[in-house]
Amino acid sequence: MSHGTDKNSSSTAIVTNGMTTEQLVQAMPQLVAELPERTGPTLGDMLRNWAEKWLKAWNSHDVDAVTAVVTDDIVYEDPSMFGQHIIGKPDFGAFLQMFWRAFPDAFFEISGSPYLALLGTGVAVPYRVTGTFTGDLYGPSPLTLAPTGRRADITGVDLYEFRDGLLSHWISVIDGLALAQQLGLAPPARSTMFRLAMRMQRLAAPAMRRMH
């Protein structure tokens, strides 16, 4: 994804595959019409074969098998993991090992119909993940989150991009607040601690506005 200037706007417009938002909207009928020809049976076979290997590897916690179905320059983005970006197989493999130590019973499954992108090789897959937080969870700093023993059962959406039959870019979208509450990392919405945090935010907001 790159950025460019839309002639109809004085602000910087996002450009996706060479098109601005307005151009992309106008192109949708053509993109939908071309989808069967662009995808064909080859894409379907590739996605099935890849998904079978991916799910088996993830749920058996096999680092080598997971990294075998991603590109060498794999990019992984997960807002719920402190917003960190993981780039390349070595760092991705290290992340997998850390994640499975933190959630040794983690299990993924597809929870809804996948969606194909109108452009490129993107696929959106609704998923459900369950797991018990029993090991340290590392972020981008030396500090770690201590295990709480709490179990998570939550849904999200994975956005996949492929190159030559391998996963090249993965964005995982999940409700970070709900996940934190399930794991005992954030107070429940109706708890005293949550109400206290809301009051503290209101006290801090005027100072934050003055800073900007």
Classified by CATH, the class of the domain at 42-174 is: Alpha Beta
The radius of gyration is: 20 Å
Number of helices: 5
- CATH topology of the domain at 42-174, anyone? Nuclear Transport Factor 2, Chain: A
Write down how many β-strands occur, each being a DSSP E stretch of 2 or more residues: 11
The share of residues in helices is: 40-55%
Mean pLDDT equals: 87
Protein name: SnoaL-like domain-containing protein
InterPro entries: Cyclase_SnoaL-like, NTF2-like_dom_sf
Characterise the protein shown here.
The two termini are 29 Å apart. The protein contains 5 helices and 11 strands; from the N terminus they run E-E-H-H-E-E-H-E-E-E-E-E-E-E-H-H. It has a domain at 42-174: Nuclear Transport Factor 2, Chain: A, CATH 3.10.450. The protein has helices spanning 21-59, 63-67, 89-102, 176-182, 192-211, and strands at 2-5, 12-15, 70-77, 85-87, 107-110, 115-116, 123-132, 137-138, 144-145, 151-163, 166-174. Strands 3, 4, 5, 6, 7, 10 and 11 form a 7-stranded mixed sheet that branches. Strands 1-2 form a two-stranded antiparallel ribbon.
